[in-house]
Amino acid sequence: MAKTFTITEFFRRFPDDDACLAHLMKVRYGDTLDCLKCGKHGHFSRLKKLPAYSCPWCGHHIHPMQGTPFERSRTPLQKWFYAMYLFTTTRNGVAAKELQRQLGVTYKTAWRIGHEIRKYMAWVDGDSPLGGSGIVEVDKAYIGGRRRPEEKFDNKTMVLGMVERDGEIITRIVRSRRFDEAASHFVANVKQGARVASDESTTFINISRLGFRHQWVNHAKKEWVRGEVHTNTIEGFWAWLKRGINGTHVWISAKHMPKYLGEFEFRFNLRNSPNLMFDFLLAAFPRP
Ligand SMILES: [Zn+2]
User: Fold this and answer.
1) CATH tag, 136-255
2) DSSP letter string over 198-254?
3) Any idea where the domains of the chain sit in the sequence?
4) Which of 75, 133, 159, 167 is buried most, with the most CB atoms less than 10 Å from its CB?
5) pLDDT band at 1 (very low <50, low <70, confident <90, very high)
6) Tens digit of pLDDT for each residue in 51-79?
7) Distance, CA 265 to ligand 1 centroid (Å)?
């Protein structure tokens, strides 16, 4: 196990904006590269007045922030990096208030940075189809929201979760308990023929018709485990997600829920090597 990535180490690696820009340049383009304009190979050098590098042969510019969440942001790059550090060294997420305080930016800016990082985490995480080797557990849960005094029901978001045991998780927001809405997500995200475990909910009752080997436990009859059939992994994820969201955020609307789900999927999928999260995020920017 590698040691925890400390704040001292963060500032040693990224003492200023220039160090962050140099890092972006290196992971996205390499130390030397073939110029897109003149085709010659060389080491691009940093321009003094722009966050950019130029070709030693023809002067063509490369902007390492282009196509990243930092593009067009007025917030200094080091603050973005530090925000990513905070996101990857917490288990339960980072509230906008906390970002505001730690980064010394306005609440609005902190809120935006948080959402950009969540989107980026979700993008880095990706969604490869589940069910290659392990049993896929499926379940649904009601997440976020809060009950206002004038409302009869709380406005939680219904989320469908699919997790491969010892593998990755994929979540999707659904609007109804009906089977056909969930079905399209199973077909898109779980490999044909995979073993699928659920509870007795009618949302899952026809899964075998979609070409999956479906077995379920009957929670209503207090049957939690039958041999390999159970939903403990996905329920563990829900418990952690609810704890994280309720403990960190006042409330989350359905509109923004996908970003929070993406953030927690990313963390869950790297659960066995949390110390690698930061470097993983820092190295995954889209290649130009
Ligand atoms: Zn060139």
Assistant:
1) 3.30.420
2) E-S-TTSTTGGGGT-EEEE--GGGT---BTTB--HHHHHHHHHHHHHHHHH-S---T
3) 7-125+276-283, 136-255
4) 159
5) very low
6) 999 999 999 999 999 999 899 899 999 99
7) 41
